[in-house]
Design goal:
25% strand, binds adenosine-5'-diphosphate, Rossmann fold, D-amino Acid Aminotransferase, Chain A, domain 1, 19 strands, alpha+beta, binds calcium ion, Dna Ligase, domain 1, 4-stranded antiparallel β-sheet
């Protein structure tokens, strides 16, 4: 029997889990590097193309090669993956659902129409009038409608500062996004104060299975560099249930009918979840697989591959939702592990001289993987540009307290130093 061929679109090689899962599933990969990336995994068929700027050529090449499935973890490429799946008769989310997930305006409209918790918001086309947005309750968050990775996202505290902030966000979008994406304008939404959580879910036969809920810190802005991810989150049962229900509602609102979903939300007053970002994909370029595998024992990457090539799931938890519960009583052995990702912050701008403490962290017994993206000699540019994150440190611990303490230790022991 020939092995199925999965097109893996615009993935970064440094994050290994999807390659390991393809091995486990007995699937060959057709690797389509992210434009500008020069590395490809060894012994893997490579196809060159650009889903964002030249989708028609890439679609034609895929139609020639006839893969059995297509998968991406790169947010802006999700609509292309949906389009290609539809054109080639492969499983996938609908083009409409994919578009709504990556367009922050369509996301807001879909969530509001479905009755999900929604902050006040307004949309502004490039160069357009700002007065409606200025009447929202401040502080607000301004973001490109077609943005990702917190590109250009900024908190604005006073209506007087809004026009200048909007024009700056438009300039970032014009510079860093394809023209058609920048033309979609900007979304301004009321700032929802509260801790941030990420939900990893999986949709099968149109129903949402929540796999994990993790804590993402409480970023205050004005810019939103990602920081920590710790799962399972320590939450009251009723609050956890509210989060699970809201994530499922968001999936239904967008019409996501199959595959992995990464959902981000803030918990207002510690109780009410407000979803602000939904990705119809594995989160964090694969980090969500690590989190789910280690904290909930579910092989998210393999399930995602299975769904992409039309195989039925084998390890999904029963409905309505199963979430690992941390051991409540001190002294009891934990039922599941606590998994974390620590993102090293750039902490400055200029040419990196050294990243102190990273090598020591990598040798810590709790650490399972370090992915380094920036190295000495690399240039970190100031906002509004995004130069990437220095490194991810992924670890596993017996308790939530041990994981939190480890992240505090990393805060104290890792420093990015810059040449003057
Ligand atoms: P991106 O798709 O670029 O990641 P997000 O919508 O996820 O954009 O926003 C990036 C970050 O900005 C979030 O992680 C969150 O911390 C913050 N943020 C976004 N929208 C809001 C909001 N309405 N209230 C509070 N914080 C927000
Ligand atoms: Ca986000």
């Amino acid at each position: 029997m020939t092995r199925p061929l999965l097109a893996l679109l615009h993935h970064r090689v440094g994050l290994p889990w999807i390659f390991e899962a393809a091995e486990r599933e007995g699937v060959d990969l057709l690797f389509i590097p992210r434009p500008g990336d020069t590395t490809a995994p060894p012994a893997t068929e490579v196809l060159i193309g650009d889903a964002l700027t030249d989708p028609d050529t890439l679609l034609a090449a895929l139609a020639d090669r006839r893969p059995d499935g297509i998968l991406t973890m790169y947010d802006p490429a999700v609509p292309f993956a949906a389009r290609a799946a539809a054109a080639l008769g492969l499983p996938g989310v609908s083009e409409d659902a994919a578009r709504r997930a990556v367009d922050k305006r369509a996301l807001r409209e879909s969530l509001a129409a479905a009755g999900a918790n929604t902050p006040g918001y307004a949309t502004v086309l490039p160069g357009g009038a700002t007065d409606r947005a200025a009447r929202l309750r401040f502080p607000v968050v301004v973001k490109p409608a077609a943005g990702f990775s917190s590109l250009g996202v900024v908190r604005v505290d006073h209506p007087d500062e809004l026009p200048a902030a909007l024009r700056q966000v438009e300039a970032v979008a014009a510079q860093q996004l394809p023209a058609s994406a920048a033309a979609r304008g900007t979304v301004v939404e009321e700032f929802v104060a509260g801790a941030e959580y990420a939900v990893e879910s999986f949709v099968h036969a149109g129903r949402t299975h929540v796999l994990s809920v993790g804590f993402k810190g409480e970023p205050k802005g004005p810019y939103f560099e990602e920081g920590v991810y710790r799962a399972p989150a320590v939450l009251r049962d009723d609050v956890l249930a509210a989060i699970v229900a809201e994530a499922a509602l968001a999936n239904a609102a967008l019409g996501i009918s199959t595959g992995p979903v990464h959902t981000e939300l803030r918990l207002r007053d510690g109780e009410t979840p407000f979803v602000f970002d939904v990705g119809a994909r594995i989160g964090g370029s694969g980090v969500s697989h690590f989190i789910v595998a280690e904290s909930a024992g579910i092989d998210l990457a393999a399930e995602s591959i299975r769904a992409a090539i039309g195989r039925p799931p084998i390890s999904l938890p029963p409905l309505p939702a199963h979430i690992g519960t941390p051991s409540a009583t001190a002294g009891e052995p934990p039922m599941i592990a606590h998994a974390g990702n620590y993102i090293v912050q750039t902490g400055g701008t200029g040419r990196i001289a050294s990243i102190d403490g990273l090598a020591e962290a990598a040798t810590h017994p709790a650490v399972r993987h370090v992915a380094q993206f920036l190295f000495p000699g690399d240039e970190v540019r100031a906002y509004p540009e995004f130069s990437g994150y220095p490194a991810f440190i992924l670890s596993v611990h017996p308790t939530a307290a041990a994981l939190e303490a480890f992240h505090q230790h990393l805060d104290d022991s890792i420093t990015v130093r810059y040449a003057r």
